[in-house]
Design brief:
The complex is a heterodimer of chains A (about 525) and B (about 230). Chain A has about 525 residues and is α+β, with helices and mostly antiparallel strands. Chain A has 25 helices and 15 strands. Chain A is globular and about 70 Å long. Chain A starts with a strand and ends in an 18-residue tail after the last helix. Chain B is mostly helical and about 230 residues long. Chain B has one domain: Up-down Bundle (Fumarate Reductase Cytochrome B subunit). The chains are: A alpha+beta (about 525), B mainly alpha (about 230). Strand 8 of chain A pairs parallel with strand 1 of chain B, so a sheet runs across the interface.
Chain lengths: ~525, ~230
């Protein structure tokens, strides 16, 4: 067993109002540059819908992620190392810019400089790729709120298998929003696809980053990511991706998308997992068992033995305390109401989603019911279509898993309503869904009250550890296991580490010893 | 032997070699961020599928042919039992095929770069110079192979051009061997040196980044933010 800490995210889809504030603030911070005009590290999709890039979930086409070979061994869906080298001159699985959209701006100058005339001047759209006038035909959220859905939504890959029963007529439609960032997977296929070894997962917090100096632009990460969340900067010829705003995370601050979220749907926190069993979990034969296998990797930071092991594996003490209070651990692991996006891709994603009750409630209202939360309960059993859709999205098709979560959410509402309106604390409701009343109240506190300090429980990075590298071993006078506190805080070298967007610093150059870790077992001498 | 011959067959090669080596060292040390093939596949994919694959595989085969014909001396090939006739056969038939494949790829790439505005807009002056030199070098090369060796009178470049080329690396240049070579061989060699001189300052540096280390590498890479601090 070797424990690692991972910064994870949970998004409560019931609260997402689809305002795109997260996308806009993310773009302003990270991709507001030439070459990344079309790039949205964070985007919000309407489901059912095609998404961005179009039909990204169709991995029979793009061949992202992992699959099992005939003997049950995990391999990249797009082919292994030899196949990539043979095909290095052209990537057959790469989306082109038209699968995203042609980025455009408007000819604003005309508005100012047009001569006086009877009609108002018009700012025409111009392509940011060619500089020429263009007509805008698609965009990053073209099918927002089911716009054009009667024509396009039937091509949504998530509808596969239930398309004959889904009605997209206005009266019978259901929809919800799906905000997406990089999943910072435990078993990232982009990392595995990179021939140059430029993409890596950080040991300390699990954030997946692209070393801009090491990237040679082979583009296999772009197609290798089943979520299509690695992008190619067409100016620099390098891959870029969501950084989980690591400079903010290191300072204990939430990501920009979280900080600016109007609906307060996002949660950030640590989880501890056993890195030695990642491959085993990702190789689980039945895709429907993948979620349980992934949940089996996480350990309980309240367990004293786990805390000992974490300390042995170099996780700082205060980080273990943060892990105990982590909302991600609570929602995804303790209460199991958050689910990973498309677990069947076998990347063990670390952005989790609380499935929305709203499509169920909406469908209920269309059936003529009052939207009494208590009525939701039988409806969850009855309304197959939205549930099957959610199951295809969040549970590898396992509808029972969606019912399980929705029942917990509906029960929490019913329980709290009875408690607050009638003053009755009905334990029975809690036990019916395998929880107790205190747990339901805790869930309510997390999901409904959702205070800032409950949503974001992020430890600061231990930058003083970097300082220790410059010193002779032992000059600090404190063993690491005793905690680094007595050395005093040392100012963070923030700006110098990131001269050129993302991680351009190459730690192995300055810090000899940084080296790849095998998927299976690291040599024993690493942690004696 | 004129002063021109000395310039073209001694000064130019050594100047180009110095630029080639020093340029790569400088670029590698100072421009890791710019070290990429700057692919345009994102902007246009279908033409690139043909152009890129034909060009690269054709070029690799042509380079292998040059190694056999220029770097390997006559006595070595005959020592392993390759007769002059067999050698000529190898250089004429597979060599012509490789050349034609490479030229076809290059033509597709050039047409694509000119025809698709999205791709054209990413083209800078160095790219134009690289494409021009590649077209000249490869065009002259296929001309030699087809017009002189496959269908023409033939020219024994292995006892002139090849010896001159190898001599450069023993610091024993013999420019008189090139002075007597046919014009098409002279132009091919001179333009190739120009290409080598430009190489480290262009996107051609991606050639040296062919990621062999990917073979046999563990799939998932971890890197510590502060590696040594973890003991």
């Amino acid at each position: 067993m070797r424990l690692r800490a991972q910064v994870g995210m949970v998004m409560n889809l019931d609260k997402c109002i689809g305002c795109h504030t997260c996308s806009v603030t993310c773009k302003q911070v990270w991709t507001n540059r030439p070459g990344t005009e079309y790039v949205w590290f964070n985007n919000v999709e309407t489901k059912p819908g095609l998404g961005y890039p179009r039909r990204w979930e169709d991995n029979q086409r793009w061949r992202g992620g992992w699959e099992l070979d005939r003997r049950g061994r995990l391999r990249l869906k797009a082919g292994g190392q030899i196949r990539k080298l043979i095909g290095i001159f052209w990537n057959p699985d790469l989306p082109t810019i038209d699968d995203y959209y042609e980025p455009w701006t408007y000819d604003y100058e005309t508005l100012i400089e047009a001569p006086l005339s009877e009609r108002d001047p018009v700012a025409r759209p111009r392509s940011q790729l060619t500089g020429r006038e263009t007509s805008v035909r698609w965009g990053p959220n073209w099918d927002d709120d089911l716009a054009g859905a009667p024509e396009t939504a039937s091509e949504d890959p998530v509808l596969r298998g239930i398309e004959d029963r889904v009605k997209l007529a206005y009266e019978q439609a259901f929809m919800f929003y799906l905000p997406r960032i990089c999943e910072h997977c435990l078993n990232p296929s982009c990392v595995a696809s990179c021939p140059s070894g430029a993409i890596y997962k950080r040991e300390e917090d699990g954030i997946v980053l692209v070393d801009q100096d090491k990237c040679r632009g082979w583009r296999f990460c772009v197609s290798g990511c089943p979520y299509k969340k690695v992008y190619f900067n067409h100016r620099t010829g390098k891959a870029e991706k969501c950084t989980l705003c690591y400079p903010r995370i290191e300072a204990g601050l939430p990501t920009i998308c979280s900080e600016t979220c109007v609906g307060r749907i996002r949660y950030l926190g640590l989880v501890l997992y056993d890195a030695d069993r990642v491959l085993e979990a990702a190789s689980t034969p039945d895709p429907r068992d993948l979620l349980d296998a992934q949940l089996g990797l996480f350990v309980d930071p309240d367990d004293p033995e786990v805390r000992c092991q974490a300390r042995r594996d170099g996780i700082p003490d205060d980080w273990i305390d943060f892990a105990r209070r982590s909302p991600v651990h609570a929602l995804a692991i303790r209460y199991r109401v958050a689910l990973p996006l498309h677990p069947e891709y076998r990347t063990l994603p670390m952005v989790w989603y609380v499935p929305p009750l709203s499509p169920v409630v909406n469908a209920l209202e269309q059936d003529g019911y009052e939207a009494d939360p208590d009525d939701v309960f039988p409806a969850i059993e009855r309304l197959r279509i939205p549930i099957e859709y959610l199951a295809n999205l969040l549970a590898a098709g396992d509808a029972d898993r969606i019912r399980f979560v929705l029942r917990r959410l509906a029960t929490m509402r019913a329980f709290m309503r009875k408690q607050q309106v009638l003053g009755v604390r009905e334990e029975r409701l809690a036990t019916e869904v395998g929880m107790d009343a205190d747990e339901l109240e805790d869930l309510y506190r997390l999901l409904a009250i959702a205070r800032y300090e409950d949503r974001y429980v992020i430890p600061q990075a231990h930058t003083e550890l970097a300082q220790r590298l410059a010193e002779l071993p032992g000059t600090c006078g404190l063993d690491f296991e005793g905690g680094p506190g007595s050395c005093g805080a040392i100012p963070r070298p923030a700006a110098t580490l990131n001269q050129r967007f993302m991680l351009t610093e190459r730690p192995e150059r300055r810090f000899p010893g940084a080296r790849p870790l095998p998927v299976r077992n690291r040599p024993a001498e690493e942690h004696p | 032997m004129t002063i021109w011959d000395t310039f073209l067959w001694v000064v130019l090669p050594y100047a180009a070699l110095v630029l080639f080596v020093a340029g790569h060292v400088w670029r590698y040390r100072h421009d890791q961020f710019g070290w990429t093939s700057r692919s345009t596949q994102l902007l246009e994919g279908r033409w690139l599928a043909w152009g890129s694959n034909l060009f690269h595989y054709g070029a690799l085969a042509a380079i292998a042919g040059h190694v056999l014909g220029i770097l390997v001396p006559n006595w070595l090939t005959s020592a392993v039992g390759i007769s002059e006739f067999t050698y000529h056969f190898i250089s004429a038939i597979p060599g012509s095929i490789a050349g034609v494949v490479c030229v076809a790829g290059l033509v597709i790439l050039i047409v694509r770069r000119a025809a698709f505005v999205r791709v054209r807009r990413t083209t800078d002056a160095v790219d134009v110079a690289v494409y021009t030199l590649l077209a000249i070098v490869i065009g002259l090369g296929i001309g030699e192979t087809l017009a002189v060796n496959a269908f023409g009178p033939g020219y024994d470049y292995r006892s002139t051009v090849a010896i001159w080329f190898r001599g450069l690396f023993w610091l024993h240049p013999e420019p008189q061997l090139m002075a007597g070579a046919p014009l098409v061989y002279q132009l091919h060699a001179a333009s190739a040196w120009a290409l080598y001189a430009l190489w480290p300052f262009s996107r051609l540096v991606h050639v040296w980044s062919l990621p062999w280390q990917y073979l046999g590498r563990p799939y998932i890479l971890y890197r510590s933010r502060y590696a040594a601090a973890r003991r």
